[in-house]
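We close this part of the discussion by returning to an individual protein. Part of our work consisted of pairing the sequence of a single chain with a tokenised description of its backbone. What the numbers capture is local backbone geometry rather than side-chain detail. The amino acid sequence and the backbone structure tokens for this protein are reproduced below.
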Amino acid sequence: MSVCLPTLVLKENIIQLPNVTFKIGLTPQDALVILQMYLEAPHCISPRMKSLIDLLKEKVGCVAKHEDLTAKLSPVAMDSLVAINKLLAADEKEHPILATLFFNDSEVSKAGVLSKICGIHLTPELCILDLKGELVGFRNSKVTVTSPGKYQFVGEIYFEITPINKVEFDETLIHTWAGIVEDIRANIKIVLEFLKSFETWKDDDLGNLLKRLDPLGELMFLQFSEPTTMSNLVKLEGLTENSSVVEYDSILKICDAYMSTFPFSYKQELQYLSCENLVAKLNTVSKCVKFMNMIFTKFLNIDHVYDSWNRLGRLKNGKVLQSRFIVDHLRSFKKFLEAATKPQHSNRSLTRTKCSKNNNDSSPDNFNINNDDDNDLKCIEDFIVNIDKFHISEDGKTSLTKDYNRLRKMQSQSSEYQQLRNYFDIIMEIPFWTVGEKGQANIDINNTRKILDRDHYGMESVKERIIQHLAVLKLTENTPADAKSPILLLNGPPGVGKTSLAKSIAQCLNLEFQRISLGGVNDFADIKGHRRTYVGAIPGLVIQAIKRSKSMNLVILLDEIDKVGVVNSKGNPAAALLELLDPEQNSSFTDHYVGFPIDLSKVVFIATSNNKWEISEPLLDRLETVELGGYKSNEKIAIAQQFLLPRQMKRNGVPREQIRICDVILELIVNGYTHEPGIRNLERLIGQICRAKAIESVASEGSYTSEISKNDVIRYLGVPVKFSISEEFSSDDSGIQEKYGLVNGLSYNSDGSGSLLKFEMIGIPGEKRIFSTGRLGNVLLESCAIAETLVEHLFYTHTFVGYDQKELVRRLKETSVHMHVPEGAIQKDGPSAGLTMTLCYLSLILRRPVPSNIALTGEITLTAKALPIGGLKEKLLGASLTRSITKVLVPRLNRQDLIEIYADSIDGHAKSREVLTKLVLDEEDCLLNKSRRYSFSDVVESWIEKEYGIIVKYVDDFMGVISETWNGDVKLVRTVFKANL
């Protein structure tokens, strides 16, 4: 009978026998690879086993993904499961069947055991499978073992098995079996007597003392005194007492129990397993029974040793000879201790594979460090002996060898000894063996796109840039080692997904992820480590992250890099990052604590910031910036429906069908209760609603409704943050201030968001010109001075049609102006308010209000030119959130920013780039041809109006601002003006 089954190869002299329950511990990833194959055959999976596999999936989902988690059961294997379960119809319940083979001396056994998976047990680090051996099969296909570790899953293997059948027993066979049973009983009896004599020895019983010195006797005692072995001995004794009826099944059961209970060698057990018929099995068992009897009757017979000892004592120099015996025995015991405690790594790989990522046995860092000084020194000695196998620079090898030689000569009680020992403990935890691992080689661009689309809504241009970055990382695997990939800086306001994007990149690369928070770091030693001479010195944050990940090939997120402290007495932390983030230098990064260069070229660094202009220029020059803008209201609503609401319902234990929030209600929450570029506060509010509905669900008595209404929102969330944002920015007459002298500006905030900034001016009699309040910075004050000079120049060089020019000039000379920018607790600065302040001053002197639905931004010069500014997308988003601004004036040269925003919104990278190229060429032609300067396609402006609800108008100078603000109602005529020279 030929069957095909999933097969596990056991190594390191581990063997399983039939009719025995065998427990094996696998990593969660490896266990999931095997177990989820059986989901294709649900008749074999119990509900409890199914729930444990689902739990295992969740556990594996929190760590790096296994490269082969998608393995499925073939149709042939599914048929084999049905056939074997039918063959083993001892009980009605079907089980998954797993085959095990055995590997030793570079050879995989032909014989294998087909076992039922009877149980699954999850521990924090392992998944333990209970395997009940049922049948012996012989493989008829080739198996190749490649990975290190205690086991390897080799997929589906074909086996030939012989069904259990009845055998005709002749007199010879019956006699042979009866003799074997008697010998097994004798073995059990002699073992029990041996254990009794070994446990009850006395200090003055020299014979038993000599028996304790025999290594073979001690080994036998340790193995047979185990509670499990003792229990198995009792069961085996019971089986032999009930063996009067000669049956095939009972003979096999006794033989299997005997071979698994008594401590035979790997070769003996494999020889028994490889027997293809009952006669061969009985012959093998008979040899093993005689071998075990010889051990206890001959090799553990201490009488000859005891007599020899007494004979030595009667000789003239007997005491000397007995003393030499004791000394030689102690010397041999010491040598044995040294050999036994020395770690064995000869058969282990110096690189970690994906299957053994969490298995410390597969890497040379498994030095079993403990608090014993001698053992620690042996671990360090082993590390130094094998130092050439690690990826350590020559300087590092020399330095470590020198430090080790110093350590050997020190007293263990000295403080310097403890300092050096701690140093070696940390060095041995740095995964030097993983330098050069090629995690990027497994990058699947299509899978990357799916992961990014699954975890993040929108952000098409950002996703495309990340895919390009990962493609570069993949291609550099086939280029020389000195090929460098760029280091990304994700810049954007809080809550837009910078950190989660970095995690997605690590998932796409199948690498470990570590986050280093740089916010508030004001000591360069936090980055580069403290020198070993200091008390309590530790490595820098980067080396600590590498230690935690157990890999040199990982993704490190440098979070809030713009919040790094400034130069102080402890150095410049930002300057310490220069070496780390330079691809040309980080291949020899030197941590002050480690003391020698470490290759970090395989580490993928990603930085995040809220305001990239806060980063020092040399550091920013080393980073490739990817801009992440704030979300629009419709994007927040979509994210809330797809991501935030399901996540909060799961966290708060609310079933999916118990809460339904329509888009209209989400829009109310977004606009009435939040005013942020990101979605963090929105998620908190949704979580608050979920908790409130959870209380209602528990306390309700049949009156529960899942639909969230506007009244429910107010009841759960309270008073909106702003009843109407438009009221905050209203230009209605307060009863004190006139309507003129009020203008809406646009600002780009330090957190990366945009908002409306109101400028107010009041004129009172006096000769003092503009003075200001509202915590304005130097650049804003300079723009205010330009506005004052420009308006004064305008009145002397132009005539305002329909106005009394003399009255305007008199008003200009005799008016003292106070300018205020609300929210005085917030520091404000920047050049983009020049147009706004100039218009505000002109509105005050003309006593003509500026429409409250208009906002403007742009820098102004003394020649009245409007210069482009930055952060336009964020400013438009901030204006849109107010719901009161319908028209925005921006410098003409800022249209290129809107073109880029529009092109990035188009689905499909190829189409997006095609549209961008067309629009850029058209824009270039418009700027070079004055007659076409404003004759361009309005596709960009129409999209802005649709998405943001804002009409964008462009201006080249302040005259354009006047025209667009008052729709041509204010006209100026140039007059002759003689300059005062």
Observations:
- The chain is about 45% helix and 15% strand.
- The radius of gyration is 41 Å.
- The chain has a mean pLDDT of 81.
